[in-house]
Amino acid sequence: MHPLKTLTTGLLVAVSLATAHAADTPPSPWSLDINVTSVHTEAWARRQLNQDNPGLGIEVKFSPDWNAAGGFYKNSYRRETAYLLGIWTPLHWHWGLPCGLTASAGLAAGLVSGYRRTEVPTAPLAAGAVLRLRTAQGFGINLLAVPNTQSGSGFIGLQLVAPL
Predict the structure, then answer these.
(1) pLDDT tens digit sequence for 8-52
(2) Which residue spans within the chain are E strands per DSSP?
(3) Domain 3-20+28-153 has CATH 2.40.160
(4) Alpha-carbon distance 89 to 100, whole Å?
(5) pTM for this model (two decimals)
């Protein structure tokens, strides 16, 4: 499936799940992160690399600004990857939408396996900007943006999120 179609489908599924869930259920601090896709920023990478990145992860919220996440996925080089990230999102926005949609933004950093230093010069360290969209019940998406490096393409990755 084309990455843009996958991204759009993922957004629609997340919104559908959010509106179907009971409005009065408080969100759990634990969530299931479902890795879906990545869209690479370089044309060569969109042609040559894998942009379907299935995987599963668990995320826990310690405070409104701090989360930790860990899991696995198939990376752009078609290798299994494990990750452990700290997520800091100090910027928060709230909208008066029926599903209680909120957004937060910040940075994620941590450790990741499955990459060679010729592909990701900082391996096993990883970092990027994160945008999190959530309903009042905890359903939503994570977007992770990683910049280009001298030897590799940046990307925007999509995760669907469901409370546990």
Answers:
(1) 565 555 555 555 545 566 778 999 999 999 999 999 999 999 999
(2) 30-40, 52-61, 66-74, 80-94, 102-112, 125-134, 140-146, 155-163
(3) yes
(4) 18
(5) 0.82
